[in-house]
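Before relying on records like the one below, remember that each one covers exactly one chain. Contacts with other chains, cofactors or solvent are not represented anywhere in the record.
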Amino acid sequence: MRVVIYDEESLEPITVIDLPGLSDMALHERRDWRVAVQVKEPHRTRVGEAPRYSDSMRFVDLKFEQISRVTLTHGEQLTWLCLTRATELAMLLTPDWLPGQRPAIQQLQDENSRLADLIASTLMSVPENE
């Protein structure tokens, strides 16, 4: 299920994520959910050493509220509102792009891959003596 996560205080949209296995039935049974976020945290190193990072797990608590909307053509429509207080942490979740965003994101990913290949091929052609 694709979910738009909103900030609980301001109701500002934060991100769109895909929560596989989440359904209306599951939300009727349980309204509070927890999603794991993998965060790279720096380790202190000695002076002159390259910085090192370790992966740690943090959790974003999501709260779902059912809201109702009434229209003349469709009658009452029920949907879910997903809220969190951990806005900064929720921004680190892997986004699931909206249909209108996907072509632009795909173009950026293709361009990044092309540039990475160009950099790699350039580095391979530079002699080690230089």
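The chain has a mean pLDDT of 85.
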